[in-house]
Amino acid sequence: QVQLVQSGAEVKKPGASVKLSCMASGYTFISYNIHWVRQTPGQGLEWMGILDRYEENTLYAQKFHGRVTMTRDTSTGTVYMELSSLRSDDTAVYYCARGGSDSSGDYYSNWGQGTLVTVSS
Amino acid sequence: DIVMTQSPDSLAVSLGERATINCKSSQSVLSSSYNKIYLAWYQQKPGQPPKLLIYWASTRESGVPDRFSGSGSATDFTLTISSLQAEDVAVYYCQQYYSTPHTFGQGTKLEI
Q1: Residue B6 forms contact with A (CB below 8 Å)
Q2: How far apart are CA B14 and CA A75, in angstroms?
């Protein structure tokens, strides 16, 4: 079955960077988009960006431009999301989610379990 | 960006009764080229990631009970639970995937 397994919780100081991983299994990895979404109590669900299935193209939300980088390793079926210059309001649960393919729309059919990132001095 | 607005923010419904959650988009999410509405509904229970319930505004995801249904037009959408069960207590979100940034509604908390 399709599974997205995310890396464990992180605690970071303001100004630091964090790199989260999302290991996919149970489907053809390169055939589907991967999205990153974060959830904070105050902001609800917030789309951060997409790692497109075609040639690893990425598109980031304007809010995170310059701070976020999404990459993938096709040999291990793992997607990474790095967020830099962390601030206290980056404290959130971060999710990866499987999006669309050539034969389906870009809704999010499967989600990782989430990774809590806490930013605190 | 397309703004998604849900109503109500919270809802209390008796077991076995109907629950209706509304969602409105600030722009059309209907593709005239494909004649599809790029709107999804998710259910989130405490401590869990969101779970896809409905996509293309009205297509139920495999394994989702048929008491869940979705409807709508280009900008106005509804999620209906025909007969509320105890396990349906959750927060429900609508989302448009018509254009990036994909945006979510603020959520509707459904209680018994």
Answers
A1: no
A2: 50
